[in-house]
Design the sequence.
């Protein structure tokens, strides 16, 4: 199973680099799609089939299609939008900060090697039935709050997209 | 043997790539996609911890993050379209209305 992890991890990192380095936003969106698909494959490996399905339908499906639509709407041919920050100091500072964040997070991995976890996962771990059980017993309030949040976002999105704002 | 450390390192790299993209690009759409990349890295880490601790709470959290991400995309893209109507550009250096 190691090959499986390394294959999709390499795919995710390469596509991630492509996402932030592509000149145009559209190839960048393609790179992002590849990252999402690679992560979905890793979720399957991690016994989270439902999350993998949601990753493909919500992220790679709905969100990315919306992003591509907006890219198509907003691209103006008269300016080179794809450029990096014009000011060189911004670029250097941004890259240094990003690498620092990456290094800090990676340094944190040194302390977690002893969490091996129980070898045997409980029955039905990650199954839709288990999800339903948890949502309607332990996380009912959170579930309802999330639905209200989505409703508010829906109304907000419609209001903000009005013509005469 | 793939351990938790591998997954945490992978998601750290993805998060860092997203941060670099967010701080160095000036196309608002690419900034947006960098934020999505960072969210995705966090999801990966939560699912990995959930697996290695045999605790479903991490996966439940990921579902809630999906809801928040969907809300963020809906409102964020609407704001971006509104800004584009005013400025006729998606270069973030031109979005300086609130700059002192």
Sequence:
């Amino acid at each position: 199973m190691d090959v499986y992890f390394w294959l999709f991890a390499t795919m995710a990192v390469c596509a991630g680099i492509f996402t932030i380095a592509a000149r145009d936003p559209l190839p960048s969106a393609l790179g992002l799609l590849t990252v999402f698909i690679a992560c979905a494959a890793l979720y399957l490996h991690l016994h989270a089939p439902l999350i993998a399905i949601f990753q493909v339908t919500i992220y790679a499906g709905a969100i990315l299609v919306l992003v591509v639509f907006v890219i198509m709407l907003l691209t103006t041919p008269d300016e080179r939008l794809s450029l990096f920050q014009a000011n060189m100091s911004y670029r250097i500072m941004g890259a240094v900060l990003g690498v620092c964040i990456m290094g800090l997070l990676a340094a944190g991995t040194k302390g977690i090697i002893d969490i091996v976890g129980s070898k045997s996962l409980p029955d039905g771990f990650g199954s839709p039935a288990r999800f339903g059980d948890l949502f309607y017993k332990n996380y009912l309030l959170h579930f309802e709050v999330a639905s209200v949040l989505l409703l508010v976002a829906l109304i907000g999105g419609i209001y903000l997209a009005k013509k005469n704002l | 043997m793939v351990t938790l450390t591998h997954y945490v390192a992978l998601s750290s790299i993805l998060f860092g790539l997203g941060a670099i993209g967010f701080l160095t690009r000036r196309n608002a759409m690419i900034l947006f996609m960098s934020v999505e990349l960072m969210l995705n890295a966090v999801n990966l880490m939560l699912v990995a911890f959930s697996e290695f601790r045999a605790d479903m709470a991490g996966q439940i959290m990921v579902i809630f993050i999906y809801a928040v991400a969907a809300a963020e995309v809906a409102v964020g893209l609407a704001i971006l379209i509104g800004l584009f109507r005013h400025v006729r550009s998606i270069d973030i250096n031109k979005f300086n209305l609130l700059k002192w």
Chain B is about 80% helix and 0% strand. The CA atoms of residues 21 and 34 of chain B lie 6 Å apart.
